[in-house]
Amino acid sequence: MKDEIDLLIDYPANIASLLIKDQIDIGLVPIAVIPSLKEHHIISDYGIGCDGEVASVCLFSEVPLPEIETILLDYQSRTSSALLKILLEEHWKISPKTVSGADDYEKQISGTTAGLVIGDRALKQRLYSKYIYDLGSAWKEMTGLPFVFAAWVSNKKLPAAFIAAFNEANEVGLNNLDEVIRQNPNSVFDLKHYYTDLVKFKLDAGMHTAGKLFLHKMNGQ
């Protein structure tokens, strides 16, 4: 499998941009990018989702939700930002100002300015913020469904044999999570708990249903 691909590592929004521009064939991309693609195919049974709490996609604040006036949005993920806007309107029913955050924007989270933070930076931010609003939990409360943040998407049809091998490669990785965790230690969060209990890597029927609902709501924004 590794001889058939050139692996490029970048944060989700950049990968999505490359896929839209047809500069790559496949990407693990935020599902919010799907409407921007001329052609799309979800090519794998694997992705990144949750069924309730996710811990690494959260709104962080020093004040309760009703007191938030401004939210800094994470520049790394379109899906998380779109999900937050849906939750603000339909679930929490508040309308603070939302602006794009720049590098190190987490340091600006103070007073009535909150921040949407994802990934490892979110796990670290959990140590500092008084109020933590988990977007996976909020979506589950609102819809009763799991959520899918990212999927392996291609912008063209791919051979069935390649897709089968690609799924097998993903499965090998998941079957060796302990080794992955050992090679990527994190002192601020229990990665064993994170990868086995919170993040869901297998995209089941509920996640596909949730993805369609999310895209419908996103397009209605």
Walk me through what this model shows.
The protein has helices spanning 12-20, 78-91, 119-125, 135-143, 160-174, 177-183, 191-198, 205-219; strands at residues 26-30, 41-50, 57-61, 70-73, 97-100, 113-118, 131-134, 147-154, 199-202. The chain has 221 residues and is an alpha+beta fold. It has two domains: 23-52 and 145-219, Periplasmic binding protein-like II (D-Maltodextrin-Binding Protein, domain 2, 3-Layer(aba) Sandwich); 57-143, Periplasmic binding protein-like II (D-Maltodextrin-Binding Protein, domain 2, 3-Layer(aba) Sandwich), CATH 3.40.190.10. A five-stranded mixed β-sheet has the order 5-4-6-3-7. Helix 2 (78-91) links the parallel strand 4 and strand 5 (97-100). Helix 2 crosses helix 4 (135-143). It is globular. The mean pLDDT is 92.
Essential attributes:
D-Maltodextrin-Binding Protein, domain 2; 221 residues; 38% helix; alpha+beta; four-stranded antiparallel beta sheet; 23% strand; single chain; 2 domains
Concise account of the structure shown:
With 221 residues, the protein is of the alpha+beta class. The chain has eight helices and nine strands.
Topology:
Blueprint lengths: L11 H9 L5 E5 L10 E10 L6 E5 L8 E4 L4 H14 L5 E4 L12 E6 H7 L5 E4 H9 L3 E8 L5 H15 L2 H7 L7 H8 E4 L2 H15 L2
Parallel strand pairs: 4-5, 4-6
Antiparallel strand pairs: 1-8, 2-8, 2-9, 3-6, 3-7
